[in-house]
Amino acid sequence: MLRKKVCLVGYGSTEYSRKSDRPLLSYYAEAMQNAMAQTGLTKKEIHGFSMVTQASPDYSPYVAEQLGLELDWVLNGDCGGAGAVCAIRRAADAIEAGYLDVAFIVAGNAFDKNVAHQRVLEYQRANYVDVYGYGGPNTLFALVQRRHMEEYGTTLEQIGKIAVSQRFNAGPNPQALLRTPMTIEDYLNSRLISDPIRLFDCVMPCSGGECVVVASEERAKQITDKPIYLVTDAEKIGFQASNMLPDKTVTGMSVVGEHLFSEMSRDNIDLLAIYDDYPIAVMMQLEDLGYCAKGQGGPFVDDHDLTFAGDFPVNTGGGEISVGQAGLAGGMLHVVEALRQLRGEAGDRQVSAAQTALVTGIGWLSYARNLNTTAALILERRS
Amino acid sequence: MAGKSLPAVNSIDREFWEGAAKGELRLQKCRACGKMQFFPRIACTDCLGGDLEWVPVSGKGKVHTFSLCRVPRNRAFMDEVPIYVAEVELEEGVRMVTRIVGDDRDQVTLGAPVTVTFMETEDPDIKLPVFELVA
Fold it and tell me: What dotted CATH number matches B58-135?
């Protein structure tokens, strides 16, 4: 479905750190303060608030009280790495229904040991995976990547090109924690973590926060001269959930892509912000989104320049694998990068004449499958 | 220091672990539609029916995929690395996350036939279903 009158009107980022002991709430607050400074909005004009999290008990309404927010709409954002995209979708629904005009959506991560965090109970992961001594998402994605390599002949060089291109993109991005140039040899020589996943496949956890501001078109025009329109969006949760012999190399993004590209041609997208907890995840999403046939992600990557200056720009700020993954702000980072590009604020990594962007989010590695949550949206600058 | 991870046995999956302790691999089967499923759940993933029975299965299958885990999330497992984490497709048409064990585990390939065996844990009442390559 096409969205009618929903815009993204601003964003706020914090610095990223591997060592900070700042509390999580300070990252939320700073990201929101930066978004307020950019949009000129005051606290009283924030009528909707969502925090994307998978930790309890810091639910959105409690955090709203901490921040002194009086709200008409609140959402505790779930869906893991797809949470940012999903929260924007929920806010857009409320805006289209007329219940909401301006929402701030935040996500972040911190290493503050004084704040209690309890992961939501993951019975199937605890009782049926962790007991074998697995390496978390690194092993779960290794199980996927090996299938992809063996079924389709995908090479480490093809997968590594994604990591190398994104590191190049991170070079001009002051927010990125990893900006040193990387070669394919660096990638291939990085140590194995959970074969065939190696160190430079993995995101680096860090602290930091991101905020995006969603508004009705009417308010958007008052707030900014650069409103970015939400064109269309979709999600698929629990893809293959009842299939005991699921195809590990096909994700719910295949369904999401069908919805999105029934509204706008995939060839009209100027840049892609593809959730990149691992390069193989980027490759599989490109396949599932229909940019090439299933299994042809390797040759597709060979044939295209994925840098911000290339013919097929992907993760133009370096993505999570170069910027760092600040918890579920990892999903929001992709939205913010797309906004920077479409607003012409991407500095030395600006994609020329960028008018449309595709943003994806993926999350929650399901048992013996791949992604339990997949979501995406298309953004457009309209002049 | 915390030990190696163990399952928190509960009312949903107690029969699975009781079977494993006796050397029997059991799956849930829906009495309404006949669907077999794993991991154990509160209801059938095909029809949402709640009348599930436990059935013993062959323990025979083939390797669908595997990874050599060198950095386990729970560092108590570090003395066992690399750990051959695998997904095994059982003859009964379900896949399990498990481990490949045995002196020849480094010979594992996709599609390799395997058979179940049960591994002792730090809890004498808990045995883990793991798989060996069929010679």
Answer: 2.40.50
